[in-house]
C-alpha cells in the first residue's frame, strides 16, 4: 500500500515554512482527532498518519532526509539491512521509484517557479540510484576497488539528449503551457500533478528520436570502478556524483549511492572500530600460563601471553589490532576474551592424574568455590535462625 506524502498529509506544499507546517499540523490534528470523528473507523489511523508526518517534517534532519529519499529514508532499507542476500541493484525497486517521485516533485517546484516567468522546463534531472554492496569484514578492513554493473540510463547518442529527431525543435506542451504541472482541486486543497501530456517536461516533440523515443536517454548497463575506503561499516553510504541516471532530454545527471553492508565474520565481532574475539584455552594453559596465537583481521597472527591462573571471561587488549576508522588515521583495538575449556573424552590414566591433583588440592587452589560455599553456608544458617 502506498504511503501518503507527508506534506499532503498535513495539507501543506513542499517548501512550506516551519510555521506553515506547524499550522497545517494543528489544523489537521483538530480536524481528524478521533474524539471528534467517532463514526469514522479510520479516524485513529488518519490521526496517527498526521502525527507521523509532523514528527518527520518538524525535525530539520528528518525533513531533509525525507525530502531527499521520501519514505524510503525511514523504512529500514537504508542501513543496507533490508532483504538479506539482496546484494546489488534493484532496478524497479522501491528505492529508485521513491527517488524519482521525490525528485520529480522537487524539480517541479523549482522549475514551476521558472515556468511562471514563461520559461518551459525542458529537461528533468536524472534519478539517483542506489546500489547495495555486501562486503566481508576483511574487505572493510583493507578497503577495496570494486567493479560494479549498474543498470541505468545514459544520454542518447543519436539525438544528443534533445529527444527530437533530425534537429526538429521541441514545442511547448499545450496541456500545461510548458509548466509541466497541472492543478486539480482535491477537497480544500489545490493539488499539483505532473502533466500527463508531457510527463512534466513542459515540451512535446513532433518527431521524436527513434532511438530513445523522445526521452533523450536510453537504458544501459554501466560498468563503474568504485573505490571503497578502509573502515566502512554497515550503513556507510558512498555518493558518486553524476553517476546516476542521465536526465530527460539533456537534463542533469543524478547521483549514484552505494550502500555498504558488511557481512558478519566467523571469528571477529565488530564494535565500531574495535574487534572482539572469544578464544578457548585449555584448562592446563589457563592454570599454568603460557603463550597462545590468535588470528588478526589483517590475516596475520599475534602472540598473547596468558597469565598463570586465568579464568573464563578474562579480557586482554591488543592495541591497534582493530579496524581502521573511516577517513582517519585512527585504528581500533582488538579484545580477546578467554574461555577456559574443561577437558573431555579423558582416558583412564588422565582421570587418575586429575583425581590425584584433586587429592592434593587445597582451598587456596579454588578460592572462588571455597568463598561461594562459605557464603552459601551462612545463607542456610540464617534461614534456620
Ligand atoms: Zn535520442
Ligand atoms: Zn505538459
TrEMBL record:
Gene3D superfamilies xref list: DnaJ domain, Heat shock protein DnaJ, cysteine-rich domain, Urease metallochaperone UreE, N-terminal domain
Renumbered zinc finger spans (CR-type): 143-221
Required cofactor(s): Zn(2+)
Subunit details: Homodimer.
Textual note on the cofactor: Binds 2 Zn(2+) ions per monomer.
First-listed, main subcellular location of the protein, grouped into a coarse class: cytoplasm
Organism superkingdom: Bacteria
GO terms of biological process kind: DNA replication; protein refolding; response to heat
UniProt keyword annotation of Secreted present: no
Alphabetical list of SMART domains matching this protein: DnaJ (SM00271)
GO cellular component: cytoplasm
Positions annotated as CXXCXGXG motif repeat: 156-163, 173-180, 195-202, 209-216
Known function: Participates actively in the response to hyperosmotic and heat shock by preventing the aggregation of stress-denatured proteins and by disaggregating proteins, also in an autonomous, DnaK-independent fashion. Unfolded proteins bind initially to DnaJ; upon interaction with the DnaJ-bound protein, DnaK hydrolyzes its bound ATP, resulting in the formation of a stable complex. GrpE releases ADP from DnaK; ATP binding to DnaK triggers the release of the substrate protein, thus completing the reaction cycle.
Lineage: Bacteria, Pseudomonadati, Pseudomonadota, Alphaproteobacteria, Rhodobacterales
Protein name according to UniProt: Chaperone protein DnaJ
InterPro entries per the UniProt record, alphabetical: DnaJ, DnaJ_C, DnaJ_domain, DnaJ_domain_CS, HSP40/DnaJ_pept-bd, HSP_DnaJ_Cys-rich_dom, HSP_DnaJ_Cys-rich_dom_sf, J_dom_sf
Protein family per UniProt: Belongs to the DnaJ family.
Positions of Zn(2+) 2 binding: 173, 176, 195, 198
Domain CR-type: 143-221
GO molecular function: ATP binding; heat shock protein binding; unfolded protein binding; zinc ion binding
Localization in the cell: Cytoplasm
Residue ranges annotated for the J domain, each copy included: 5-70
Domain commentary: The J domain is necessary and sufficient to stimulate DnaK ATPase activity. Zinc center 1 plays an important role in the autonomous, DnaK-independent chaperone activity of DnaJ. Zinc center 2 is essential for interaction with DnaK and for DnaJ activity.
